[in-house]
Amino acid sequence: MSALTASLINDLPRLAGLAIALLATIVVIAAYLRRDRRSAYAGMHRERVPVPKPAAHRDVPTVRLANSQRVDRLRKLVRLAPGEHIDVLENVQTPIPTPPRFRITLKRVLRMEDGGVAVQIAVDFGGTAVSCGPLVEETAFNEFVLPRASRDEPRNCVFHYQEHGDSLDFMRIKLRSVDMDADIAEIDVMRTELAGH
Fold this sequence. Notes:
single chain; alpha+beta; 2 domains; six-stranded antiparallel β-sheet; five-stranded antiparallel β-sheet; 11 strands; 18% helix
């Protein structure tokens, strides 16, 4: 019995190597056979889903949607000199003076050290605070140093959005260009209101 035990102990490393090689061969064969099998869950037999066409957006003042919704869109290109202002939305005539609903005042035109241009504007949006992108510098309440708009529009514009129950109000201001000889800035203003009835 001791001769048989001694023989098994001497052959134990070879038997363990043989068992590991056999298991590895079984795993490789199983992986190969499983790879060749097509699964209905892997997307091989999926039906083609039609891709919706992109919506065409045009500059129109009012777009009718469903029976209960309406979109009012106002877009203006405004040319201002320093000290001038524009009332984008006219005030309702009341016996008591009210603050402007939406007024943009051009404070000054700035020439930057890197050769770029910017303008300092004041925005009066009915007393509501407006926000700005990270490239715009807010100098005081609703006063901003606005750089010329680039391709990265959300980063260099002044904006405001507010939800009123089932309606949404959105406003965006960006600097389009500056005439350096005449110190006149061209400002692009957009206001959109989605109202539910």
